Amino acid sequence: KVALLVGNSHYRHHPSLRAPGRDVCELRLLLEQLSFQVVSLLDLNKAEMLAAVSQFLQLLGKGVYAVFYYAGHGYEHLGRNYMVPVDAPQPYSPEHCISVQRVLQKMQQQQTALNLVLLDTCRKWYSPGGALSQVQPLQPWGNTVYGYATSEDAEAYELQDGQLSLGIFMQYLKQHILQEKKVTHMLEDVLEGKG
């Protein structure tokens, strides 16, 4: 059981976020209770994100349960999701961001037992035009599960509580992740906001 958690909060050219750091910390503690080996990283530029993913992929293989979690700025364009590194210029563009589908494709190639990808990010596209990253179509393997913080073409929100801030997605995820149930059922309960 291996997990890579990335939380980007302090951006150079985009508004700062308050929740990703705390969300990563919360999820790390929960996954460790489930016997995952967890690497959690904060405020990564593009080169650092690519290096972290590359090292994460080396830990994967047959029989491995893999979790990839990203909290921070992001967007979805024509069905493809992108994570925004802290050094990405304004406006967003694929060449300055990380393709989630490309990461997932490489995870699938490792023949893991389960790939769980959790995206705690906006899925709204603001810029007209813009090219897509070149990535082959994903294999329709049954060992891959996506969890989104929000629906397509929508923003993700943070909860403010004084000095503390938590993403709404994490607020519900932490209530269900330790329960013994199928991961798809757990994410359905998160989606429905069951407490």
What does this structure look like?
It is built from five helices and ten strands. The protein has 195 residues and is of the alpha/beta class. It has a single domain (2-193), classed as Rossmann fold (3-Layer(aba) Sandwich). A five-stranded parallel sheet has the order 2-1-3-7-8, sandwiched between helices. It has a three-stranded antiparallel sheet with strand order 4-5-6. It has a two-stranded antiparallel sheet with strand order 9-10. Helix 4 (168-176) crosses helix 5. It starts with a strand and ends with a helix. The model is unreliable at 133-137 and 151-160 (pLDDT under 50). One of its GO terms (molecular function) is cysteine-type endopeptidase activity.
Any chance you could write out the topology, listing elements then pairs?
Elements: E1 2-7, H1 20-33, E2 37-42, H2 46-58, E3 65-71, E4 74-77, E5 80-83, E6 98-99, H3 100-109, E7 114-120, E8 144-148, E9 158-161, E10 164-167, H4 168-176, H5 183-192
Parallel strand pairs: 1-2, 1-3, 3-7, 7-8
Antiparallel strand pairs: 4-5, 5-6, 9-10
